[in-house]
Amino acid sequence: MLKGARVLKGARVLKESGADPITPFRVTLYPAGHILGSAMVYIESELGSLLYTGDCRTPPSPATEGFSAPSSVDTLITEATFSLPIYRWEPHEVLASRVREFAEDALREDRTPVFLAYNLGKAQEIMQMLAPMDHPMMIHGAGFPLCEVYERYGFSLGRYETYRRESCEGKILIAPGSALGSGFASNVKRKRIAYCSGWATLEARQSQLTVDALIPLSDHLDFYALLEFVEQVSPKRTIVTHSPNADVVLHYLAEMGIHAEAGLSENGMNESELGNVGLGEAEVKVSENTKKGSG
What architecture does CATH give domain 92-217? Predict the structure, then answer.
């Protein structure tokens, strides 16, 4: 966990990747590969062992401490945000090339490139991808102090400053999708917008947003990495949470000989009873001049 973080009164701070005895349990944190400081919780006791992933990603984001897990667990509780076979991420190097090409093409056309991405985690990964261009970037005001934290922990993010409306034209801009609704870069007439998310895989989704490119960059593991991860830790019992359709991933895990079940959703219902659920991120619409698969 990040040093210096504020904690609740009476809370106990654990060191990542270091076991800490909390009677009658032994707790170890493993890096989750999701965002800087993200961790999975591994609990051991006389009753057995349990690994709770929270949000995780493997292969990990380069803007994290990496990803590691116990060799085996008795019970696994794992997120399954993208647990459908349509979700297979491209290699990081391919996505990084797509991000740079999008920015370079926009700048070549005298347009301002805008990347829509979460302020925490996704924005910093995109900045790492863009850093070799050595082109000035402007970061959404809520994301800028987070970038300073990443720099403090040794992650080089290139040349950047906080977003200023009056001088943002010609810079590479990074902001969450919600910022567009509050006027982010609305004064820039010539711009190209890329939506960066695992949900970008669903190109046909309708939306109030219009973008020029969809780049499926996610900070979660994809369907195939999920299956591989579950097989790797060889749990006796597996519980999946946050799945768009738990029956699908449960079927594939059963085919692998792994007993799994769906956890409870936020409304207390079993996720396998919910079928397809909302995907929880801003939906996007590709503008007419966008070619399928470009980015």
Answer: 3-Layer(aba) Sandwich (3.40)
Q: How far from 66 is each of 8, 73, 156, 200, CA to CA, in Å?
A: 26, 20, 16, 24
pLDDT of residue 210: 83
Q: Give backbone dihedrals phi and psi of 119, rounded to 5 degrees, phi first.
A: -65, -30
Nearest to 129 by CA among 99, 91, 89, 170: 99
DSSP string, 208-237: SEEESEEE---SS--HHHHHHHHHHH--SE
The domain 20-87+220-273 having CATH identifier 3.60.15.10: the answer here is: yes
pTM, rounded to two decimals: 0.84
pLDDT in tens, 171-225: 999 999 999 889 999 999 999 999 999 999 885 554 545 899 999 999 999 999 9
Instruction: Give the integer Cα–Cα distance in Å for 75 and 81.
Output: 19
Query: Tokens 């006791």 — which residue?
Result: 45
